Amino acid sequence: MLEELWKRLLALHVLRYLPILLAPGLAWLKRKAIAAAIGTFRKEAAARFWGWLRKKVSAGPQTNERTYKGVFFGYFQYANYPHEWCFQLDDGGVKTKVPTMRTNLFSGVAPGSYVEVDTQVLPSYKVEVVKRVRVREQGVMTTRQ
Questions:
Q1: Residue 116's closest CA among 103, 95, 135?
Q2: Which of 49, 61, 127, 128 has its CA 20 to 30 A from that of 68?
Q3: Helices (H), 12-135
Q4: What is the rounded distance in angstroms from the CA atom of residue 131 to the CA atom of residue 65?
Q5: Which pTM was predicted?
Q6: What is the pLDDT of residue 142?
């Protein structure tokens, strides 16, 4: 009986069994291809995410310091809150009005004198803190801190 079964099995055409014989191999290749595609996608997503995070976190020390130069017009108080004080400069026809926190560094500066003002920007307050005022008087630079 077993001999008859083998004879029938061998008598059948081989192409009928080819899909049955190749199916496990194709499934294995398909699984490998899907795994490789998912692995590539996962690596790319991780690289983009960690690159974005690295750029946001390691921006380095941001100085947020500015220097303004020009002819000093005055130190004024705004009429409306939250920007209470500002100084105004003119540099070659360009007038600049800078909102600042209250300071006494402009107390002895006469309007019309050439000044250099160093400030530090406070992003959460939308104003600047005056760190240093340099006044140029007759070719000599004086500094106030």
A1: 135
A2: 61
A3: 14-57
A4: 9
A5: 0.52
A6: 58
